[in-house]
Amino acid sequence: MFHGIKLVLLAALTQPTMTLDEAYSLIGASLDQMNARYGNTVFNEWVVLSLHEKTGRILNYHGPRKDDFQKSLASDLDALFEELESRQFGVGDFEFARHASGTHFDAFLVLGRGFYLICNNTRASMDVIAKDPRWLAAQVPFVELSDKFRANPVALKA
């Protein structure tokens, strides 16, 4: 009888996880909601990366510069790596790089251990986007997305 109780307790303590395909679907829907609330495209580029020791592996890319993205990945990630190294970020945590511009990334979200969503607007900086009063409402789907990953982090299934 105690053996059965132990299994139930272990199952209750195990955090549910999300697959990469589930993550891609949620991300796309959330970014669409952000665009609708903002009345324009907030992030025209997003990528899910697996990052380990300053090297990144692209798992999924959406944006206007697919062919050039891999080539510029290391330089684009410089500002975000600096931020990642300076603080401890948990699953669901995110950060906006207010002064990034062009192809340098504007935001990241921790999807799971070693998995990150990187977002960018290649036409406008976060500083410009944030000055629009609609930015406040546009952030809501992003925060809700972060909560979903906090509750169900991305993990590779064993």
* CATH architecture assignment name: 2-Layer Sandwich
* Backbone shape: globular
Give the oligomeric state.
single chain
Q: Proportion of β residues?
A: 15-25%
Description of the molecule:
This protein is α+β, with helices and mostly antiparallel strands and 158 residues long. The protein has a single domain (15-151), classed as 2-Layer Sandwich (Beta-Lactamase), CATH 3.30.450. 47% of the residues lie in helices and 20% in strands. It is built from 5 helices and 5 strands, in the order ααββαβββαα. The chain has helices spanning 2-13, 20-38, 66-86, 126-131, 135-151; strands at 45-52, 55-62, 94-96, 107-112, 115-120. A 5-stranded antiparallel β-sheet has the order 2-1-5-4-3. Helix 2 packs antiparallel against helix 5 (135-151). The longest helix is centred in the middle third of the chain and has 21 residues, at 66-86. The chain is globular. The protein starts with a helix and ends in a 7-residue tail after the last helix.
